[in-house]
Amino acid sequence: MARLWIIGPGAVGQTLGRLLAERDVFEIAGVIGRDPAATAQARNFIDRGDVLTFADRIDARPGDTVMISVSDGAIDGVADWLAQAVDPAGLVVFHCSGARDLAPLEPLRQRGAAVAALHPVKAFADPAREILTFEGVVCTLQGDEAAVATLAPALAAIGADPVVLPEAVDRRLYHAGAVFASNYLAALVQAALECHAAAGLDAATSLRILSPILRDGLDAILDRGPVQALTGPIARGDAAAVAAQVMAIAAHDRELAGLYLELGRQTLELARRKTPGLDLSALEAVLAKH
């Protein structure tokens, strides 16, 4: 069985390591980290491999795979260290960043490693939860053909959906799209909770009210696309409702009102595309004058 080295004992490394070990995709050779206690904890969760630090000898050999699951800013330093600590020839080395390209892995590639970026498009908070909810997660791949040929079937074996990105894809913009869809969604829900709090609703009641429409709205977007899924006062051209809401929000929090207005202007463009010919001039005036 091919061996896997995991550099970085965080949630991504723990989740992928545990799944790849349990499905007998890789033999876990070792878990490497700076903090021995955190690394030992990660190893215990994965339940395979040795606990190692950057001062230990890494017995990597041709045919092994190395996962670099550290923070984005640490990838360069880890790649440089690995290029000196082992002979990279014959290794497959990948990092798990959505935003970083292959440039940090270039020292390894130049010395004979096949390199890739593997990005699980998923929020990672608690590895114990993530291993239970990983089925069907899209994992994007970008890199050398030999690395992709190793990683794509490994991902499929743990229930993921591997998607190979074209080489020309700008990973900064690719990852920004994921941030909009995931991280900024949390900010939008928080904005909704703040509006409800100003209206006199407690958070539990607000989440109870919003949960069905959040799920239904997201399902509609995924089924039909944002334009056709659009509903609400802007989609109807209801300028009076929007103006009243802007005034109420601004009386409570002007920054929140500014967010409402900016999103309203973006939504106006969707409304134009959904219903060509709909008179949106009054709405334009409301959204522009505040």
TrEMBL record:
Query: Putative oxidoreductase/dehydrogenase Rossmann-like domain: from which residue to which, for each copy?
Result: 6-120
Q: DUF2520 domain: from which residue to which, for each copy?
A: 138-267
Q: Name one Pfam family in it.
A: Rossmann-like
The identity of this protein, by name, is DUF2520 domain-containing protein
Q: What species does this protein belong to?
A: Caulobacter sp. (strain K31)
Phylogenetic placement of the source organism = Bacteria, Pseudomonadati, Pseudomonadota, Alphaproteobacteria, Caulobacterales
